[in-house]
Automatic annotation (TrEMBL):
<feature type="domain" description="Alcohol dehydrogenase iron-type/glycerol dehydrogenase GldA">
    <location>
        <begin position="13"/>
        <end position="154"/>
    </location>
</feature>
<dbReference type="InterPro" id="IPR001670">
    <property type="entry name" value="ADH_Fe/GldA"/>
</dbReference>
<dbReference type="Pfam" id="PF00465">
    <property type="entry name" value="Fe-ADH"/>
</dbReference>
<keyword id="KW-0520">NAD</keyword>
<dbReference type="GO" id="GO:0004022">
    <property type="term" value="F:alcohol dehydrogenase (NAD+) activity"/>
</dbReference>
<dbReference type="InterPro" id="IPR039697">
    <property type="entry name" value="Alcohol_dehydrogenase_Fe"/>
</dbReference>
<dbReference type="InterPro" id="IPR056798">
    <property type="entry name" value="ADH_Fe_C"/>
</dbReference>
<dbReference type="GO" id="GO:0046872">
    <property type="term" value="F:metal ion binding"/>
</dbReference>
<feature type="domain" description="Fe-containing alcohol dehydrogenase-like C-terminal">
    <location>
        <begin position="166"/>
        <end position="348"/>
    </location>
</feature>
<comment type="similarity">
    <text>Belongs to the iron-containing alcohol dehydrogenase family.</text>
</comment>
<protein>
    <submittedName>
        <fullName>Maleylacetate reductase</fullName>
    </submittedName>
</protein>
<dbReference type="GO" id="GO:0018506">
    <property type="term" value="F:maleylacetate reductase activity"/>
</dbReference>
<keyword id="KW-0560">Oxidoreductase</keyword>
<dbReference type="InterPro" id="IPR034786">
    <property type="entry name" value="MAR"/>
</dbReference>
<dbReference type="Pfam" id="PF25137">
    <property type="entry name" value="ADH_Fe_C"/>
</dbReference>
Amino acid sequence: NGSRSFVFPGIRSRVVFGAGTISQVGVEMKRLECRKALILTTPQQREDGEALAARIGGSGAVVFSGATMHTPVDVTRKALEVYESADADCVISLGGGSSIGLGKAIALRTGVDQIAVPTTYAGSEMTDILGETQNGEKTTRRDPAILPETVIYDVDFTMTLPKSMTVSSGMNSIAHAAEALYASDRNPILSMMAADAIKSLAAALPAVAADPADRNGRAEALYGAWLSGAVLGGTSMALHHKLCHVLGGSFDTPHAETHAILLPHTVGFNAAAVDELLKPISDALDGTTPGKALHRFAIRLEAPTKLKELGLSEADLDRAAEIAVKNPYFNPRPFDQAEIRALLRDAWIGREPP
Ligand code: NAD
């Protein structure tokens, strides 16, 4: 809108990016004056955690491999016991948003330094946001203690990410950049980063989907994921993230897939109000409207496109729309319950958005 008025809060984490960068883990531990690390993984990535412990060597690391989706508080308690009995003084979260979420939950309670080694494109490593679940309820908070001090992006760890997770997680990443473009607290630096994130992911994801072993494509996708994570951490999200939170929190839909399915619809809806701000999406994709471009991109990637496929019923859509309008929050286009219900119904059947 031409008015030069903004706040740039800075980007506070140290980032080491490249292929083979895990070799820097000892150096990075030293920078943080860390003597012994608690390595956090999911059960599926336990072996990678053990290999990292062996690389650190001696009595410099122990592994806890119980991380799981949505950061349940009882898992955090178990990990805290291991952290204390091992006498660790930093955590290394190796994995996607689930492992990184556990590291954040421990840091929130102890103030311990975190090194994150992300292996998906979810972006959690660059944010001071933590969502935790207890008794079936998900609460989200922001706190400076939650932000990891150091992030080691090692392309090598992303080579094993399965194709389906690669494309869904890639769409999840684009979602952060898309909402940063119209965020109420956007600023010129993060807007540039968001546009570059979309450009990188738009180029890289089709290459990696065609050949998951494409190292250049993997590096470009991870670069985009870093940028997207940074803009997620630096701005406030709107309708898209809110709807994903409602579906994930109340209907237990999988994180990355939910983002992938909803994104064309939420962007299509908001484009009616902020078409010009969303131009980087059209520019990076096929030049049509931002919503259509994302929808066609998802189909091309063979990403999931229908909420129906996640097991939601039409009655669930009614309840989701009701929850989504309960608490007001910023969105560039005002909406009511009926409009959200219609948007969800389009996403349920996978209809091409406007
Ligand atoms: P995830 O961490 O749950 O990973 C999904 C599965 O893929 C896991 O089994 C994991 O072990 C496996 N995996 C991860 N990387 C792999 C690789 N390179 N090779 C093989 N397998 C691999 O999934 P996610 O989408 O990264 O994270 C989702 C969670 O993160 C949700 O709980 C979400 O709420 C949270 N999240 C939080 C933020 C934030 O800022 N707080 C941002 C994004 C996501």
